[in-house]
Predict the 3D structure of the following.
Amino acid sequence: MIEPLPDESSSAMLTLPTLAALLERYEAMAEAARANDWERLSALEREAAALREAARGDTSGAMDDAAALAKLPPADAAELREGIARLLALDAEIRSHTDPFLSSVRKLLSAGRQERALRDAYGASSR
């Protein structure tokens, strides 16, 4: 089961609990993408977007975030770097499944639009 979103309203920086929650969502998203479960993928993406937005927070304190990152213990900083690298790898995997699907949807929509344009230009064909 996926854990609920962590409450990080006091911090705008990516923290290890938020990173863990994001990794959990991205792992589930990759699984959904492999299974072509687009509805589940979409729901998980909305959850991940909320987590990313919470981690991003107010960017006016970016210098404070940089200072906070510099003060992190080396092990925590390394864990953040590794987690972010894993997120990027999962994102690439998810895209490798979704891009072909989205391309086929675009083709279907384009063909329908082209057919309507021809029908509008030349009228409905009589049989």
About this structure: Residues 3 and 30 are 17 Å apart (CA to CA). The mean pLDDT is 83.
